[in-house]
């Protein structure tokens, strides 16, 4: 799993649908997730630390957690099926741990209100993320190619802590 942060909300240029954009810690990968207007407003409100005059749905859920002594450990966006992302809220209350199925947009809005981390399964990132820093990706690929090209079997043996026959004598 990879921890990600909310980079912001964008609008799809074609259909004007809101997209929440998650980025990894190195700002190398971004995961765009289409969301509804209400969830976009809720996420923006949390990002800007806006306090509504009365609790909205995601505020109410966070309030329930607090009143009942539950903590949101993290949310996990765990799969992508038929262009639909799936997530869970990972909660605990004392020794009791539960996972609750949740739309990613709602999970993100709740995580922001409870300062809980957002985790995404690597398979989801591999399938649905977009590169952010193509230059850094290419530099990394080039460095790896150079490493592999200059690699000798003796280097692998030394890295594993084994001794060659010559070294044992």
Automatic annotation (TrEMBL):
Gene3D superfamilies: Bifunctional nuclease domain
GO molecular function: nuclease activity
Domain BFN residue range list: 1-132
InterPro entries assigned: BFN_sf, Bi_nuclease_dom
Protein name per Swiss-Prot or TrEMBL: BFN domain-containing protein
Protein's organism: Aphanothece sacrum FPU1
């Amino acid at each position: 799993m990879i921890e990600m942060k909310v980079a912001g909300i964008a609008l799809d240029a074609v259909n004007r649908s809101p997209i929440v954009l998650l980025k990894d810690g190195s700002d190398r990968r971004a995961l765009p997730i289409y969301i509804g207007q209400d969830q976009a407003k809720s996420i923006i409100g949390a990002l800007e630390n806006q306090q509504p005059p009365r609790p909205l749905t995601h505020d109410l859920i966070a309030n329930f957690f607090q009143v009942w002594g539950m903590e949101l450990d993290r949310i996990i966006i765990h799969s992508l099926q038929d262009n639909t992302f799936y997530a869970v809220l990972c909660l605990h209350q004392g020794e009791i741990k539960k996972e609750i199925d949740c739309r990613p947009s709602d999970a993100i809005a709740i995580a922001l209100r409870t300062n809980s981390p957002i985790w995404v399964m690597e398979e989801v990132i591999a399938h649905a993320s977009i590169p952010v820093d193509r230059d850094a990706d290419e530099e990394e690929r080039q460095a790896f190619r150079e490493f592999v090209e200059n690699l000798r079997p003796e280097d692998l043996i030394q890295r594993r802590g084994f001794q060659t026959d010559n070294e044992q004598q």
